[in-house]
Design a protein that fits this description.
It contains seven helices and 15 strands. The chain is an alpha+beta fold. Among the domains are: 59-130, Alpha-Beta Plaits, CATH 3.30.70; 144-236, 2-Layer Sandwich (Alpha-Beta Plaits). The chain starts with 6 loop residues before the first helix and ends with a strand.
Length: 257
């Protein structure tokens, strides 16, 4: 049945029946005004009760986006069930600008996807958010994401969950410590999941009991080595110092500092 139902039908939970067309402005459900009395700038508004009714079926959907890489609908549709290990079915809808909406057959699958991250696909982070009425694909910007951070060379006595989460709190919002770190099945680095703000420079190192330790970020491929922000590399950094041309004297060649 899931193969024959459309995305809308799966969200609504039943085959979509074409409703009777109504005049919503006459009914007072919608209003129409014009910006500056200009008919070329129509402005609509929907009453709160009607808007709530329209939104309710979609509130169980998730919005996803692969950070830093474009990926096609068919590729995602084929890869996501195995990545998430879903027990039921799911439907995917391309809503443009790299965003997709997902509807699950089982609430348990939705909860696991929401809280089981961070998820990675093709070595890039898959952003997962609950759908909201404010979501507009063309205007939405990803400001934060869950990432795995590593503390290489950290002393074994610091492989304590409380210690690691405290250190991670200086990097972002600590979420959890990797099980391999807690069990100490690997000792080359400690690994912690942190939610970071992508609009702020990332923390590159920290000092602990007389020693400086580096912080490594998994899966953040566009991380500037100059300003420490995500989304560009050094040569495109708006904050990096640019070469300044200066003339040493009359008739002399310009020297670039």
């Amino acid at each position: 049945m899931s193969q024959t139902m459309t995305f809308k039908e799966k969200v609504l939970g039943a085959p979509a029946m074409r409703p009777v067309v109504r005049d919503l402005i006459k009914e007072g459900v919608m209003t129409l005004d014009f910006e500056g009395e200009d008919r070329l700038l129509p402005k609509f508004s929907i009453t709160a009760p009607t808007l709530k009714q329209l939104c309710e079926p979609w509130e169980q959907c998730l919005v996803i986006k692969l950070l830093g890489r474009d990926v096609g609908f068919l590729t995602l549709r084929d890869r996501l069930p195995a990545l998430w290990k879903v027990q039921g079915g799911l439907e995917l809808l391309d809503v443009s600008h790299g965003y997709f909406m997902v509807k699950f057959d089982l609430e348990a699958d939705r909860e696991r996807v929401m809280h089981g991250g961070p998820w990675m696909l093709f070595d890039h982070y898959l952003i997962v958010r609950p759908w909201s009425p404010e979501f507009v694909a063309s205007a939405t910007k990803v400001d934060s994401t869950l990432v795995w951070v590593r503390f290489p060379g950290l002393g074994v006595m610091f492989y304590d969950e409380s210690v690691l989460l405290t250190i991670a709190s200086a990097i972002g919002k600590p979420v959890k410590v990797d099980l391999n770190t807690l069990n100490m099945t690997r000792g080359r680095f400690a690994r912690v999941c942190v939610e970071i703000n992508l609009n702020e420079p990332v923390v590159g190192r920290f000092f602990l009991n007389g020693v400086w330790y580096n912080v490594e970020y998994e899966g953040l491929h566009l991380l500037c080595s100059s300003c420490g922000c995500y989304g560009h590399i050094l040569r495109n950094c708006p904050h990096a110092a640019r070469p300044v041309a200066k003339a040493n004297g009359v008739g002399e060649k310009e020297v670039v500092e």
